[in-house]
Amino acid sequence: MAGKTRVLLIGCGGIGTITALNLEASGQCHVTAVLRSNYEIVKERGFSIDSLDHGKVEGYRPSEIRTTIPDLSKETVAPFDYIIVTTKNIPDVPPHLPSLIAPALTPGHSAILLIQNGLNIHIPFATAFPSVPILSGISRMGANELAPGVILEDDPDRLSVGAFPATEGGDSPPSDAAVAAAKRFVELYAVSGKAVVEYNANVKFERWRKLCYNATWNPVCALTGLDTGRLRLVGEKADPFSPVNLLLRPAMREVLRVARADGAVLAADAEAEEKLVEGVVEAEPLEVFCQPSMLQDAKKRRVWEVENLLGDVVRVAADKGVEVPALSAIYALAKGRMWALKEDMGLINKDEEVRKRNEGIQGR
Amino acid sequence: MAGKTRVLLIGCGGIGTITALNLEASGQCHVTAVLRSNYEIVKERGFSIDSLDHGKVEGYRPSEIRTTIPDLSKETVAPFDYIIVTTKNIPDVPPHLPSLIAPALTPGHSAILLIQNGLNIHIPFATAFPSVPILSGISRMGANELAPGVILEDDPDRLSVGAFPATEGGDSPPSDAAVAAAKRFVELYAVSGKAVVEYNANVKFERWRKLCYNATWNPVCALTGLDTGRLRLVGEKADPFSPVNLLLRPAMREVLRVARADGAVLAADAEAEEKLVEGVVEAEPLEVFCQPSMLQDAKKRRVWEVENLLGDVVRVAADKGVEVPALSAIYALAKGRMWALKEDMGLINKDEEVRKRNEGIQGR
């Protein structure tokens, strides 16, 4: 373990586990993984992995597994070079991730890599740790935990890494340290030869590009209960009143408009824009009946990543003065669904909310 | 029974049963009601009714109850003066109602009264029976069948009756016969003294006014799973990103714009419009946690009245060149939800739909 790059991995589901496996396949990384629901079974048997990139792997255990995030002020643990977060990102539901990882962070030494979707996901971390390099990881891997400790990776590991802007300011360039940390990580991730990984300085562009799909297909599928294939089957292809033509395409065009206003020109002209939209509409063949992650969450009655995939886009649009009625509608309905879910989970009490509202009215 | 007005009632749930009760309370009507799921229990015990207008009524049976719509070519039955339809209106799901009632209709004698929501609900009937008076009934009664044969009416019976335009043309005036049939019905309905009933010539205006609520609150509640009180609690009252401010109000303003383009001016100026919208947003107190019918349908996994409450509005908007992005989004998502429901009900087969789509593509 001497000389190895020390990685703390938070979120050891499908993408996290394959990420750990690929890093340790380099022989140059020591991964400490924080496990929750799958800890006992992984401790006993290791992960059972069926991977397009790594083949069938039985009994894989990261170098160290544990149930809690280390507190470096209380444990004798060498500092971590990278803290990788691959959890779902739901800032509107506790716990607050920056607070959770703070005890494991060594400012001046550690970098944080967020392999998560969304636009401004770095801001809570940049606010909490202004001097720490915050890196962006955009994964196009398809990987799921089918049962505790059982991982299927059926879409190959393609990772794009860059550095987020240094401050909340948005368009300020990242620090040299952050760029260096990103490039070093890309080198490490490439050693195994099993994954496709690139350093990409244009984090904002990459994140907007992925939002064309994530801010549209994800919530539309989650709200309707339909996968991408089924949704495309509602109405004839040329029907102006089909969900694809009435909502999905307009919503994608809105994402492109907001991206442009935010400085990310994804399509040079109207023709390129239509081609891009068409590509995102037909991202998967009908027959695959692909279930975006938010639809999977809906079916499992788990919280959706509404704020990072959709809320940020609507807020940036408001900030830049871009009208986004389709995205606004989707966002409003998704917010409503999350309220209902949180009430079911016991996180909201309707009578308490009425009381607060009425007091607010009286207070005016 | 001699000299009594003969009424055939189709749809004997909450609103239908109270309508029958009120008509027969006049002593001047003979109601033949077609019952489905509640036939056996009503035959045995009659309806058990708790009515704000009629008090507690045990064992009420319409003058005649039956399980099928009479076929006047095969049965010796006197012709019906009025055929009243109070079923849910879902033209996208079989059976086709005009075909069902055709055998009970005596052209030149019968009038059809549709006590249903929606805008252009008369068109399938006017197309099938061009010479038959088609009447519009807009009910503001709140009545539900709590269990088979058990009716609670907790919001008083207020009925507005008029005649639909004579033809599909839209703005052509109704026939004299239709106006006379509507006025005669209003007189009959008023005899009991228990209901508030009015003749209202401005059917289009009345229908658009009700759509301000029905095309917005209904699907927004159904799609989120939240009642009107809970939905208003999502986000602060002044939060521009709350579902009410981000979606519900814009959708209501769109209904007003389409109505205006269709010749129904519901609000004279911008100030009146905002007042009307505010009134529809706050139609019920928070604490009532009112569940619009579409939300009730969603919870019971029944088909929603999407096309008549929402689809027609979006189609009229397209026809008149009015942009309705919020309503379009809601409609698209509701259509998707109905596709999912119909698949669950065995009415749609996804592989068959893929085959048809692929053949369509090859055919080009």
UniProtKB/TrEMBL annotation, chains A, B:
Domain spans labelled Ketopantoate reductase C-terminal: 204-336
Domain Ketopantoate reductase N-terminal: 7-165
GO molecular function: 2-dehydropantoate 2-reductase activity
Annotated Pfam families: ApbA, ApbA_C
Matches recorded under InterPro entries: 6-PGluconate_DH-like_C_sf (IPR008927), 6PGD_dom2 (IPR013328), ApbA (IPR003710), KPA_reductase (IPR013752), KPR-Related (IPR051402), KPR_N (IPR013332), NAD(P)-bd_dom_sf (IPR036291)
Keyword Oxidoreductase: yes
Any Gene Ontology biological process: pantothenate biosynthetic process
Signal peptide start-end: 1-20
Transmembrane among keywords: no
Keyword tags: NADP, Oxidoreductase, Signal
Family stated for the protein in its record: Belongs to the ketopantoate reductase family.
Gene3D superfamilies (UniProt xref): N-(1-d-carboxylethyl)-l-norvaline Dehydrogenase, domain 2 (1.10.1040.10), NAD(P)-binding Rossmann-like Domain (3.40.50.720)
Protein name, entry field: 2-dehydropantoate 2-reductase
Organism: Cyphellophora europaea (strain CBS 101466) (Phialophora europaea)
